[in-house]
Amino acid sequence: MKLVEVDGTEFVEGGVCAAKGFRANGICCGLAHKPLTGTENTAAADNALPNSGKKRDLALIVADKECTAAAVYTTNKVKGAPITVTKKHLETGTAQAVIVNSVNANTCNADGIEKAEKMCELAAAELGIAPEKVIVASTGVIGQVLPIEPIANGMKALAEGLSYDGNPRAVEAIMTTDTVPKEVAVKFSIGGKTCTVGGMLKGSGMIRPNMATTLTFITTDADISAELLQRALSDTVKVTLNRVSVDGDTSTNDMVCVLASGTAENTPIKKENADFDAFECALYAVMMNLARMMARDGEGATKLIECAVTNAPTEKTAEIVAKSVICSALFKAAMFGEDANWGRILCAIGYAEAEFDIDKVGVHIASDKGDIEVCRNGAGVEFSEEKAKEILSEEEIRILADLGQGGGAAVAWGCDLTYDYVKINGDYRS
Amino acid sequence: MKLVEVDGTEFVEGGVCAAKGFRANGICCGLAHKPLTGTENTAAADNALPNSGKKRDLALIVADKECTAAAVYTTNKVKGAPITVTKKHLETGTAQAVIVNSVNANTCNADGIEKAEKMCELAAAELGIAPEKVIVASTGVIGQVLPIEPIANGMKALAEGLSYDGNPRAVEAIMTTDTVPKEVAVKFSIGGKTCTVGGMLKGSGMIRPNMATTLTFITTDADISAELLQRALSDTVKVTLNRVSVDGDTSTNDMVCVLASGTAENTPIKKENADFDAFECALYAVMMNLARMMARDGEGATKLIECAVTNAPTEKTAEIVAKSVICSALFKAAMFGEDANWGRILCAIGYAEAEFDIDKVGVHIASDKGDIEVCRNGAGVEFSEEKAKEILSEEEIRILADLGQGGGAAVAWGCDLTYDYVKINGDYRS
Question: Cβ contact (<8 Å) for A333 and B208?
Fold first, then answer.
């Protein structure tokens, strides 16, 4: 899937290890109950435990030294135990490691918090740091007790296998129904110093960011205060991850966190100046591309759909309208069928819970194969069905909705609704 | 599908013709472009035009004399032209006929209002009444111009074929993706006089009542003022049709209307007294059962799902929570897979946009085959997967969520998410 460039940044390899001073690893400790399907078996190439052939399920990211840290969490009232523990640990605005398991979300279990704290203690002990400097996350099935023994048994190998190029193993370890690993990194400049921001994300179903979506881990070597790091993260989440919907469900475990090591030795960012802007821009480049990857890898998806709303009364209205289209089951099914059913687009625009005049709305359907107008001033216009079909045959579709009544704009991302979504979710205790 | 009884009412046959003084008919005038599939070909038995084998597409309901009338309409900003015209006609609170076409929604067309008014004029001319006494409705594809010629050509036969038992033909004529005709009627008593309320509904996809859902036509022979008729209708819509979701989409053409002829000769209902309550009760019996039928016939549905929320801080909270569960794609897919995935239920409860304490929530899954507790105080409890599977094998599933913190209650209805939903909507220009 093509990456979208952002001025002032340049893509680099390495994901969460791209920034200086971060090591990562991922192993299979035995939580995985389904054999690896459809992805490369990398067990032979590293330090997996004797469950070869099963997916990695335990990941670790460690910074050479303590970092400033920030996070954003789900707004679902049901919060996974890991979130409760991580929130507590991040009260200081500092952290040095992230321990993540997949397969089991450690949510809605009576002993959840105890288990999440135990994971931090186990990691901390291997690393020689305090448990409060560890961020913990879990993803997978809700409501099944998390077995701690495999995690405890695997911690030594997990720590010993850390490396400055271990990001691919970590990414695999956080995946659940994802079909592809999602990571991206950019380098940019702050006052002549090269800085890097890199991230990895997992997320495919149960996605409707009404917070920060799924699990996203970001590292950077920029030197930035905890307060500004939090601000940059919160701002960027709002216009990226919070504008993705795969199926309208908001997870109980969604979290994004960022660690900033300061090893790039830029002039420390302590106020909202040009350096802060450059940092936010790089963070945006990473998170926007991760958001697109997530939407594209939506459960069962065959297409990435982007809805760009312009000229809305306000930005908020633009966002509400864009998300309304992206979330419409009927529209998503039409995209799967490559059917230029603009009536459903207009319908979704019409029931968006925002104030605007529907009679000024115009809609275009576009992709790399072209662009056609399908609606003007709230009514249909003639268009070539053949051209529409050609445009919709692409993997990335853009719906452009011009509300014609202001300066607000927003972009949201989603995917089509397919048979595979139903298949995956009709039989996956998650 | 079983009907649910309401105290004080008794089911009778006849749908919109059950109440005294109402005739109905439905013909195929040539709008239908798809042959009749899967339903009985009734063309031979009546006055269908020479398009035998195609679905009826034009319906008419006529009262012997002018009635008090009321309606509730979609809140989608995109409103079908028929709605605009009907609203205007109902300013007087009176009407005598309803003309409905299926196949084409007459929405988002430049000449929509002109066509909708023309339909009223054509019907009125055949019936010898004023066009303003005609309610008009359309359902089907959005954004394709409505051909008026077939309707004009068919009006004579449509009017001549009216009968006091013509309701089955009318119901067929309003169907689009519905797989079954939906009608129900009840008789009840007002001051010793027998009164009747009957209704018919069409609706299967693009359903999320944020108003009054799809097309519903109700007749009654009760004598009731226009103002109270409107109040009864609005109140009842809120707790029935507005609590159904098939796929989260709110249509552009949704409307419910009711005609009250007064021929039952009850003491006229002019204030909110016991007679008014009895009338509302009967209206509720009809609309609640129509709502359940609609949910059960959701596009591709194999199951009717009912979510009953009790002990919420307020009724509004209960409603928001019930609808949140019913609308969850992940939950719906799990129901299709007969998977007791209570974690998804709790997740949907958790992201409902209402204030309450998640740690007091308990959930049961039930059907005619039994009832099991799956969640208590916001956490999972042990349950028999075998028993759960048995319970979920039924066609009607009930999710019972007790919030444990108040007296508010509400019930919402929906259906499972299946491959057929995707199939139907991946290739239906609607």
Answer: no
